[in-house]
Write a structure and sequence with these properties.
Distance between the termini: 66 Å
Shape: globular
Largest sheet: 13 strands, mixed
Number of strands: 24
Radius of gyration: 23 Å
CATH class of the largest domain: Alpha Beta
Number of domains: 2
Bound molecules: adenosine monophosphate
CATH architecture of the largest domain: 3-Layer(aba) Sandwich
Helix content: 25-40%
Structural class: alpha/beta
CATH topology of the largest domain: Rossmann fold
Length: 468
């Protein structure tokens, strides 16, 4: 066997070709046998189209089993998978295509699979080494140009094996898959755990709380972003009974509020397992399967991951080294050099700390750090206090340009309340420079597809609050 990730994944597919792989909402099924056949044909078709090892295969498509087949066929053919967020506009896609120069760009996955119909199948995966490129994932790029994180067969395989073990996956599992597959969470984390177990997936085209509720009855594991869990909790039909068949709820891609964690526990009896990851390294830390899962902590580094806090202080930027950490940003040697330390650690840009027990706690992104009157303010510290106040569902603390302080601490809050009283309450618990100068009340916060609050948009929205 070579290090081609498809060889590893397919070696774990069930012996019985009739075993279900995708269970679809319309009652249809795609079996593991059908998956293997179509992946072989598609890989043969890619090769016949002139796709060579290392060539990029880009796609911007709706979520479907066919899109997954194209992913696996790309790996099998030794090419490089480049998924693009289906929300990207034509001009954004244009940038990615010019930057990555794919051999093929697919916009209709079922159509592409039909076209491949009669191609002679590839009998064997194209041999790859662990250091060969498997995928490029463009980061969401809220500041500056999007960067393509280059992930190798070795990066993906090591992480998949570590997660499969850490989360106790087996052939008895059924994964409820409701995440998008243009992002590492739904694409690598979720799919690889199912494939390494030869387990079936209940396949939802997107998150829909009613569909998730009906899917839970036949599933054992669900992976989600925090908004999945808040939306489930907002549905009164989501009860302890509905979750009774489940073994594990995993959450990540954005911080899970301690209030959601607690409410979920009370409602269902399940403790959400929060983990931390990013495009550049897939999963980095996880709460334990056995042992205590703490609200607000992202748990311990996965085996083989070396995690440290840069800068020598207790709280600082998280730096990591390990088998899943990407090798470079696509065609950006200077950016790559800037984001690695001299001794080879990737500078994640997330600020956090480790407690004496070794658990990791994240307090936000370094670029969200507010410097007000020369003092550093970590938004999370203030958000935790606001989130506990009556009438507040969630808060986002940002720094806004201020003629005197440089930046002024402000809060945008989902909910209602008395601004002056809330600011006064913050002042009793925080140094005055940390207390918000202003609080805006909103119905919802802007989020990207993975549920991350887009603070850059909030900073734009209120940019001239103190400049008028
Ligand atoms: P992406 O590359 O789009 O997956 O974004 C990665 C970023 O998401 C990380 O650098 C973190 O800032 C954030 N993130 C992921 N998981 C968590 C988590 N469990 N808690 C807090 N932030 C998270």
């Amino acid at each position: 066997m070579s290090d081609n990730l498809y060889e590893l994944l397919s070696s774990r597919f069930p012996d019985d070709p009739e075993s279900p792989c995708f269970k679809l909402m319309d009652g249809g099924t795609v079996t593991y046998g059908q998956l293997t056949d179509r992946v072989g044909t598609l890989a043969g078709f890619l090769v016949a189209q002139g796709v060579l090892p290392g060539d990029r295969v880009a796609l911007q498509v709706e979520k479907s089993p066919e899109a997954v087949m194209i992913y696996l066929a790309t790996l099998m053919a030794g090419a490089v998978f480049l998924p693009l967020n289906s929300a990207y506009t034509a001009s954004e896609v244009d940038y990615f295509l010019k930057d990555a120069e794919p051999r093929i760009f697919i916009q209709d996955a079922p159509g592409f699979v039909r076209d491949a119909g009669r191609a002679p199948p590839l009998a064997q995966a194209v041999p790859r080494n662990a250091a060969d490129l498997a995928s490029i994932i463009y980061t969401s790029g809220t500041t500056g140009r999007s960067k393509g994180a280059m992930l190798t067969h070795g990066n993906l395989a090591s992480n998949a094996l570590a997660l499969h073990q850490a989360w106790g996956f087996s052939a008895r599992d059924v994964l409820l898959h409701a995440l998008p597959i243009f992002h590492v969470h739904g694409l690598f984390v979720a799919l690889h755990c199912a494939f390494l177990s030869g387990a079936p997936m209940i396949w939802l085209p997107k998150f829909d709380d009613a569909q998730v509720l009906s899917g839970l009855a036949g599933a054992t594991v669900m992976m989600g972003v925090p908004t999945f869990y808040t939306r489930l909790l907002a549905n009164p039909a989501f009860t302890r009974d509905r979750a009774a068949h489940m073994r594990l709820f995993v959450c990540g891609s954005a911080p899970l509020l301690p209030s959601t964690f607690a409410e979920f526990q009370t409602r269902t009896g399940h403790t959400i397992l929060e983990r931390y990851g990013m495009s550049e390294a897939v999963i980095i830390t996880t709460n334990p399967l056995e042992g205590e899962r703490l609200a607000g902590s992202v748990g311990y580094p996965l085996p083989g991951v070396d995690l440290r806090i840069g800068g020598g202080a207790e709280t600082g930027v998280i730096e990591i080294k390990g088998p899943s950490v990407f090798s470079a940003y696509w065609r950006m040697p200077e950016k790559t050099a800037e984001e690695f330390t001299a001794d080879g650690y990737f500078i994640t840009g997330d600020v956090g700390r480790r407690d004496p027990d070794g658990r990791v706690w994240i307090s936000g992104r370094a670029k969200d750090l507010i410097i007000s009157g020369g003092f550093n303010v970590y938004p999370k510290e203030i958000e935790l206090i606001l989130d506990e106040m009556d009438g507040v569902t969630e808060s986002a603390v940002i720094g806004l340009p201020h003629p005197d302080f440089g930046e002024a601490v402000c809060a945008v809050v989902i909910g209602t309340g008395d601004e002056a009283a809330m600011i006064a309450a913050c002042r009793t618990r925080l140094a005055a420079f940390k207390a918000p100068k202003r609080i805006y009340f909103v119905e919802d916060l802007p989020r990207n597809a993975m549920g991350k609050v887009q603070k850059n948009l909030l900073r734009q929205r209120y940019a001239d609050a103190f400049l008028r």
